[in-house]
């Protein structure tokens, strides 16, 4: 058996095998999955714009006008007018001076973090940040301090601890809406801490645009922080229905990113049809923000119906709804049985989520109907019970668990913090303050495999 075969069979043995499932047609509310019609309950096409006629037409027209590919990095073969146009519109949408397109959200996080932090600098990163942030931290070669999820006291403690005598730059980086749980970062507190401790902030709005904030402008706008965050990253591949990404920032930072961001400099610019599609989607969002209201009301309908089935889901308008099963194989079984019943919600397992927290990550879309979502919740309840999973025994997601964001770090909770610190491992350097490497990657397939080997 080759080493690769061995690793593949080990992944299968751990319930972590992956394969591509074939779907026909666009990312609509229903799709043909391997020939079977199913309700699509796991797409990030949140506003239903990926297959909107105006978005399709804009992409098709752009292909005829500018061609399919951008030819090279914009620094090499020139920046196309359509790139500049989308950047202007996005800067206006996000309330910043400037904007810079990237090939994808993954590339944007790599490029921005790597430009703003390097050897000798320190990045403070939420433990549930997206893998592209984790990889951006790793590649940057900065020291990485991973703070507990949404825990501003832990972040402040870490920043104080890493203040002494260090000359390097400091960066706080966080998802605004966390991709696997759908909860929201305490953005006000992050911005305050950044100011207090002289750090820059990078906030990834991949899952916030289209749902939160006025007209779906995102969590940063909802928190009243437009113009206050150093770099706001977003993707064009989710609510905006296309592909590519952007970093919105001051004109100075944008100029700096153009000069230093490796994933911008060394990668082909986003293709004109994708850029034009995103422009059309952004126009639609601005002209008809009712889609945002529709997404929110669908999220509420889905959550209510799941709660009625006994799942530990609270009433909110967050469109990402995790059903945390725990065991990898059980999550896969629930996913497979749901597909048989006509609902497609992919099971999410390590390394995307922590070992033992495998889940179905449900996502509502504006293009679903409330009755489709209610029926899906009913089916998920029936299937769970049939395979011996009591919906009520599932672990609650972060939205359900989270305390309301704390107003002033370090004051109201001083007693609690010192009590927790007294014997608390979570505040140890080993678990949080170690430089880069593993501390930046809580969920790592290599670690899962070597852990399993050791066991
Ligand atoms: C928070 C977050 N950031 C970035 C990305 C990557 O974006 P893209 O799909 O455009 O590469 C994702 C994708 O899932 C994400 O969830």
Largest sheet: 7 strands, mixed
What is the end-to-end distance? 22 Å
Report strand %.
5-15%
Overall tally of domains: 2
**Tally of separate helices:** 19
Molecular structure report:
The protein is of the alpha/beta class. The chain is 43% helix and 14% strand. The strands form three sheets. Strands 4-10-9-8-7-5-6 form a seven-stranded mixed β-sheet, sandwiched between helices. Strands 1-2-3-12 form a four-stranded mixed β-sheet. Strands 11-14-13 form a three-stranded antiparallel β-sheet. The C terminus is likely disordered. Bound molecules: pyridoxal-5'-phosphate. The site of pyridoxal-5'-phosphate has 14 residues, from α5.
